[in-house]
């Protein structure tokens, strides 16, 4: 790799310093509960599970005949309307489906959709675009259908590498665990009823105490997405702090769960290099992850308007204008991606020379330039 990559990346400094205005907004919002209302759709919602959730959440259910429409709110009001609610309903589409990357930059892993959307407020969240027509955070409560599909997936003839069900593709599956108790039911179910299937929980939550004493049977992998304190403070509203996530990872590792980490999205800003090296140092204070997957900030082109309608002052709007087009996505130019990946990989290798590292949905030429194995065997979403 040419030596000037790091120099160039250091020159690409974006205005992402923590402003007083953002900090004030965040502090104010943190006082609101993650879920302030439970909604359900009459006749399209398992009543037993819904009532159980309402009891656990200590919230009344508001019943509707259909999902109420939106009135074009913007900013915080829009976020509160979409993500301050948890809608309970039955899932009619399959719970278990295979993921297909539009340009083949990812293995065809399997996902388990227990929630649509999320109650956290990350500014870069691609789900604002994915669920633009139905943006209310939703939990699917017809668990019997889901359990049947998991059994059928477990007994099907698929390659061992794909026997992981990813719960984090369309939600954060632990964000509202204290409200739903969903993982508390699913984890022992997988341990008892499946032979080969593993569950993958990808999260920015530290909502894990109820999972520590479960009989997980080694069938549930806990994967934490972590980032620098600056990215957290400025962009990851309402999530647990990176340090709290690592403390949660340690507790789960001590309880026998496999721990994986994602450093994603990596974002360039004035002190990025020091901050990401510090993050890696902090990771190894708490846990020794089985795998680490790294991904750069890579928004879909259509995401920009969804960010600006919710976070009109977001620093991401400035960052987006410096990215290059790559199919339907925007990305940092190759040399910047190489610089950020190399910095983080070098920091990881200082702690663990045999660390299993992969890049998320990255071009094969970048894998090769960094001498990473290109068969994707160590990806977050695979066995
Ligand atoms: S935790 Fe994940 S799913 Fe939830 S808001 Fe953040 S990016 Fe979106």
Oligomer: single chain
CATH topology: pyruvate-formate lyase- activating enzyme
Small-molecule binders: iron/sulfur cluster
Number of strands: 17
Calculate the mean pLDDT score and round it: 90
Figure out the total of helices: 15
The level 1 CATH classification is Alpha Beta
Level-2 CATH architecture: Alpha-Beta Horseshoe
- What does the radius of gyration come to? 20 Å
Biggest sheet descriptor: 8 strands, mixed
Poorly predicted regions are 17-25
Query: In one word, what is the shape?
Result: globular
Kindly report the spatial arrangement of strands forming the biggest sheet.
4-5-9-10-11-13-14-17
Indicate the structural class: alpha/beta
Level of helix content? 25-40%
> What percentage of amino acids are in beta strands?
15-25%
Count of domains: 1
Could you give the distance between the termini? 31 Å
Could you explain the architecture of this structure?
The longest helix has 18 residues, at 334-351. The protein has one domain (4-369): pyruvate-formate lyase- activating enzyme (Alpha-Beta Horseshoe). The strands form 4 sheets. The protein has an 8-stranded mixed beta sheet. Strands 2-1-3-8-6 form a 5-stranded mixed beta sheet. Strands 7-12 form a two-stranded antiparallel sheet. The protein has helices at residues 4-11, 20-30, 47-57, 75-83, 127-130, 143-155, 177-180, 182-193, 229-235, 242-254, 272-286, 304-310, 316-320, 334-351, 364-369, and strands spanning 37-41, 61-64, 85-89, 96-98, 110-112, 115-116, 121-122, 138-140, 164-166, 198-203, 220-226, 236-237, 258-266, 291-296, 324-326, 329-331, 357-359. It is built from 15 helices and 17 strands. With 383 residues, it is of the alpha/beta class. Residues 118, 120, 122, 125, 127, 171-172, 204, 239 line the site of iron/sulfur cluster.
